[in-house]
Amino acid sequence: MKSRRDFLQRITASAFTLPILTSSYAAQRPAVPQDRILRVAIMGLGGYGTRVAESMKDCKRAKLTGVISGTPAKIKDWQQKYSIPEKNCYNYENFDAIKNNPDIDAVYVITPNALHKDQAIRVAKAGKHVICEKPMALNAAEGQQMVNACKQAN
User: Fold this and answer.
1) For 124, how many CA atoms within 13 A lie in the half-sphere containing its CB?
2) CA-to-CA dists, residue 37 to 41, 55, 64, 96, 102, angstroms
3) What is the pLDDT of residue 56?
4) Per-residue pLDDT of the chain (154 residues; tens, 9 = 90+)
5) Which residues contact 111 (CB under 8 A, 6 or more apart)?
6) DSSP-assigned beta bridge partners for residue 42
7) pLDDT value for 104
8) Cα(92)–Cα(4) distance, rounded to whole angstroms?
9) Model-level pTM greater than 0.85?
10) CB atoms < 10 A from the CB of 39, how many?
11) Is 147 exposed, middle or buried (0-12, 13-18, 19+ CB in 10 A)?
12) Cα 23 from chain centroid?
């Protein structure tokens, strides 16, 4: 680009093109039923997990339906506070059993960053969608392993 004017012209053209491309893409996507609610288990019941859970109370398209924690007392507290049934509560050793739980569609991983890769891969192998707090991984190679595991699990 030769000048600021050239830059502004290009960025303006992009701004006009984006809505066209976006609407074209949206038309190609399959419609998601409006009554579909994403049922989420939160892994990691610390401060940020609590903020996410509180925010989910007001969500219309997502609902907190399960928890995963290494602290039994936190699990009990969350069960009472968010009306989570016992069958939707897991610890870090047994959460692979989430595979057989139809009440949970996705797991939101909100644990220390160094744990994300292994936990996300286990969630994917259990057949559940993975939502991972940022940073997703400690480096690009770990991130790619996580993406590959999710793709492999479909």
Assistant:
1) 19
2) 13, 15, 10, 22, 13
3) 92
4) 566 666 555 665 555 555 554 455 555 555 556 678 999 999 999 999 999 999 999 899 999 999 999 999 999 999 999 999 999 999 999 999 999 999 999 999 999 999 999 999 999 999 999 999 999 999 999 999 999 999 999 9
5) 43, 44, 119, 133
6) 67, 108
7) 97
8) 54
9) no
10) 18
11) middle
12) 25
- The arrangement of strands across the sheet holding 89-90 comes to 89-90, 62-68, 38-43, 106-109, 129-132
pLDDT for the residue numbered 36: 86
**Rounded distance between C-alpha atoms, residue 86 and residue 27, angstroms:** 41
Q: Label the pairing between strands 106-109 and 129-132.
A: parallel
In whole angstroms, give the CA distance from residue 138 to residue 5. 40
The residue count for the chain: 154
CB 135 within 8 A of CB 110: no
